[in-house]
Amino acid sequence: MNQTNNPTLSRALAAMCADSDGADAALQAKFAIALRHFHAMLDELRLTDAELYRIAGWLGQVARDDELIMLCDMMGLTMRSLDLARTGSEATAQNVTGPFPKDGVAEGPNPCQLAGEDEPGQRMELRGQVRDAATGQVLPGAQVIVWQPNQYGRYENEDDSQSEDNLRGKLRCDEQGGFQVFTVRPGGYIIGREDTAVGILMKRLGRNRQRAPHIHYRVLQPGYQTLTSQIYFAGDPANPVDCIFSTIADHIVEVTPHPERDGHQLVTLDIALEPAA
């Protein structure tokens, strides 16, 4: 990044005074990095002031469309930031939170019946165990929150045909750190809309808006970092084209015929929590 012939950048960097009242040295250092990259982008693209202001106006429209997070997701920025946050320990990796978490759902029993008897779709059991990533010890009483779309890829809060909090659940792990969730296999879906700022951008870039089928979960336990993640299903054809790049190998699970329930599928998910710093 050769910026020796950029006097404006030099002045912008020098304008940050370390001894100014209220100055934050850490923020100044990070903002200096951002400035260098922004100026390098302008240099490479040869942006005029009119083009720059068009970009600023477009970002304002993205905010009005409430799609700033979607923009970060489709650019791969969210997944990259999660990659950089990984500690290298045995802890289960974080994944994208998604737009529809509801931590306030009522806590129910373990096993958890996430799908009612009249819910259409392929029946599936999700079972597993929560443990300490450092010691391997099980974590009794860890709280698990689960949410997902139905077999058509629709979440309850965007689909009037579903009852409130459908396919959402909260439960506590048993004395062996175990949990069981009975549900249906979710469908994939298309994110966003074609007529928004981000939707139009994705179309012009030749990008699809497909999300691979997945189940969200969050695990909370005092003394541990909260884990928010997702599971994807091995062999699903949408995994390689997931538009936010979150179908990483660590989160793809095998699906097998259930050994005890005819016609059901079984997914095993072992979760390791990172002790709090």
UniProtKB/TrEMBL annotation:
Keyword Transmembrane: no
UniProt cross-references to InterPro entries, sorted A to Z: Intradiol_dOase_C, Intradiol_dOase_core, Intradiol_RC_Dioxygenase
Presence of the UniProt keyword Oxidoreductase in the record: yes
EC number: 1.13.11.-
Organism domain of life: Bacteria
EC main group: oxidoreductase
Pfam families listed in its UniProt record: Dioxygenase_C
UniProt keyword terms in alphabetical order: Dioxygenase, Oxidoreductase
Molecular function as annotated in GO: oxidoreductase activity
Record Gene3D superfamilies: Aromatic compound dioxygenase (2.60.130.10)
Domain Intradiol ring-cleavage dioxygenases positions: 112-262
Family indicated by similarity: Belongs to the intradiol ring-cleavage dioxygenase family.
Protein name listed in UniProt: Chlorocatechol 1,2-dioxygenase
Lineage: Bacteria, Pseudomonadati, Pseudomonadota, Betaproteobacteria, Burkholderiales
Gene encoding the protein: clcA_1
